[in-house]
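Below is one such protein, fold included:
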Amino acid sequence: MTAATAAAEAIAPFDVTALEDLGIPALPTEREALRRHLLDAIARIRPILEADAEANDAGQTLSWPSVVALYREGLMSLKVPRELGGPECDPLLYLELCDELCYINPSAGWCAFINSTSASWLGAFLPDAGVERIFGDRSLTSQPLTSQPLTSQPLTSQRMPIASGAIIPRGLATPVDGGWKVSGRWPFASGSAHSSWLLAGFRIVRDDEPGPQHMIFAAPIEDVQFLDNWQVMGLQGTGSRDFVFTDYFVSEDLAFDLMSTDPRKGGPLFWLGRPGFVTPDHASFALGVARRALDEIAAQAGSFHRGYLTSPIAQRGALQH
């Protein structure tokens, strides 16, 4: 644990209502235009993401300027179906974009893909009534943010929620009228401090035994009990704390079976199945962080000395190939 995290107390949440009411820009639909637009957006907000790196670690979650920058450029909703105002990036484009974000700031990139994947699952798989609750039209009555939009693109009319959570089925549920009562504790709620909805996995108990179904439910963030247990050496700025639900009522319109529910919205991306759907997330993190590490070593190798040799380490064979 670093001094930054030792000094930090419980992660302070953000109220993102006004941010979500502003919405995200209407993004290009043609692939290359979308690619160019989003890469330009990442380059545009890079100074913000880099400037917030230390503050992210100290606060154990992304700082507000980074949250606003990522959200307003559509980078927290990269997989969301187009019917709901998202870009629905294909896996290769998504990998490229998240790779670049993780290169710039690993915690910011990590949260961006967690938020993107979480929101897209809600939009693609929940029943229509649940989608309407979460993605309904933006309210224009909220007080606007003081910061101006980072892009001049016209806005979508759709609310774009920020979601996070843990889909591992740590919860156990008993059927009740209209839904289930769920209890459990889940780890790694990355990006939850700036989310409005949270996902969690559960299994249904029948005859005193958890069944094989892997269910996912969504809950408003204000209903979630979080634990202050995110004290780590790496990815400090992701705020990946544990959370708890106890006898929490989940209505049928806010849950789906992860393994057997066909996507209700979206294209081929959502037919990949869970492993194929999330693989680009973690692959992009590994690629982006590895590229940054190699570039940092290359930048310092010409002047860094080690051991008894007077020559810089750049002249060693191990660093020349």
Notes: The longest strand covers residues 163-176.
